[in-house]
């Protein structure tokens, strides 16, 4: 028994004519007749008395049709409920954001989202990539804003924007007076990484074409957990940093932040949800709110090279046992 078969017997009851019922159901008359026959054979009851003109339900058929109408009403109610839920812009949303993005984008996003969905309440949680992926899969978070692709088949990714990486140099660096930065072999051993930010670190290693080795691993002895600390270490001439562009928007020392030449290395930023997430309108509103609050430099077209992290041997080894 199918929903479509129930629709057919209700249409037959209303039209009392096979040809007209078939037209209402947008199906051929033979097709409708076959489906009615299949249903009657399945339940072992004749629903219509075909010997009478017009077509007339049997006594049991009348009861079955009444129940079919009730079921179809409930199906429509479920459909309406789902549509309303998908379009609902009220209630609480648990949003996770990677810690290398959160301090710079979230304040802008909140202001923009208040205008787009004033009745939504966002509970924002800052965490590492691995933790965000875990929390989305387990339901602890509804949405995560993070670098993609994740390579996880249980997650859906909705691309929002591309964020370029920039080099941050100290005042004595040979490229401090240049317009663009070109990777220097002498900078590689000085590259500063973040503690437990394996996704972010994997991207930096890729940009610098560095394989995991003792020199890079020793950087973790700094136990650095924030981009702001990286900046201060570079200012003190204690290392070299590659940073996401949003992290330098409010910096006064603009001349020490150098863009790469095109194609610029970028990280893809997306809204990530579980494969069962249904609030498409919410994602559209969030995506637009994020896009509209971005600086013009990130909304312009430019040639880029996407830096991935999920296939990095460094990331794979570092994340073992976490998930």
UniProtKB/TrEMBL annotation:
One of its GO terms (molecular function) is DNA binding. SUPFAM superfamilies: Periplasmic binding protein-like II (SSF53850), Winged helix' DNA-binding domain (SSF46785). Pfam families: HTH_1, LysR_substrate. Residues 1-58 form the HTH lysR-type domain. Keywords: Activator, DNA-binding, Transcription, Transcription regulation. One of its GO terms (cellular component) is protein-DNA complex. Gene3D superfamilies: Periplasmic binding protein-like II, Winged helix-like DNA-binding domain superfamily/Winged helix DNA-binding domain. Belongs to the LysR transcriptional regulatory family. This is LysR family transcriptional regulator. It comes from Flavobacterium microcysteis.
